[in-house]
């Protein structure tokens, strides 16, 4: 995007400026970063916050609604939830291709309209087929607007870096913070609305997306400077031949597989230690709060010491150590509060690893993407990683059901991100900036 000399000079200027000013507190640094963002970046980051508030006000309570109010069998509830994941994560690559072809604004607007329709439909759905239709619409809506927003944030973060304002990972870290804040606030809002009924929660979720739609109609430019629309075909072929990008997807996929254990392996461990799954909500809250308050300081620390490859490597090793903590403690058979400490250690190490891996992976994609195909590459990062999670989760479930010694499944899970370190591609000379 710019030549190597420009990048080096910009980085030097940033470091010189940082060295000449006293260190800021995390709150001051965050406030300064928010003030320095362009109006478009502020819009996109606030969009991520609103997206997750609307989404998590409804979806965490969907399984209970389907089982009790609709009366679905357990297998059908699982099938519906799987369909939602597939229609979202699996189709990200389609949304990314549409972004490259038609631009950010129309794809985001279409996604908002579909999400509004899907939530309203879900609120009034009373039969299995209507629920399935609503869930598919909700999932595909995210497959449209998420690649659009994520790819443009990634592209704008590169512009930010090339202007000498600092590493691109700081912008992407703020984007992650906004998403986690929404994931934290959304369920609280949904729990309050469920005091009325599930339909009210769905309509409130739809209302959030009405506000997002109005904001983008008013504030999102018709054409974003520097954004190239690609009409030619062959993007998928180019992507599948890009070994370095596919390696990045594999490494990122092992992180997502590890993160998925919050919903698969961790509940079993909490049930064993506490006799119920009640402490799970506190562990989930711990993860969200850590990201909200520690993501930017961690990213700033990593930016001063690690490049993107080292940041991903350190994150994957921390995640592996989280599984190892539980594996080491399992033979002792602790229960009660002491039994929950290894689970809390796992959550903390997984979350800190996530803080290193996610901004680094997203920051790396613009360096690997072919000109004009950033949306496709960002979508493919999620879709390919999602396929890894799908296969890996099935294998994990089988592993947990084998009746092996207590520590073995957790040791196997620890080995996966540790081995993925070897897959993380090497940086090409002059590609990107430090993390």
TrEMBL record:
Region described as Disordered: spans on this chain: 11-30
One Pfam family, short name: MFS_1
Alphabetically ordered keywords of this record: Cell membrane, Membrane, Transmembrane, Transmembrane helix, Transport
Protein origin, superkingdom: Bacteria
One Gene Ontology MF term: transmembrane transporter activity
Keyword check for Protein transport: no
Transmembrane segments: 40-59, 65-86, 107-125, 131-150, 171-196, 202-224, 245-262, 282-302, 314-334, 340-364, 376-400, 406-424
Chief location category: membrane
SUPFAM superfamilies xrefs: MFS general substrate transporter
Leader peptide range in chain numbering: none
Keyword presence, Transmembrane helix: yes
Compartment(s) where it occurs, according to its Swiss-Prot or TrEMBL record: Cell membrane
Bilayer topology: Multi-pass membrane protein
Major facilitator superfamily (MFS) profile domain span: 40-429
Assigned GO CC terms: plasma membrane
UniProt-recorded name of the protein: MFS transporter
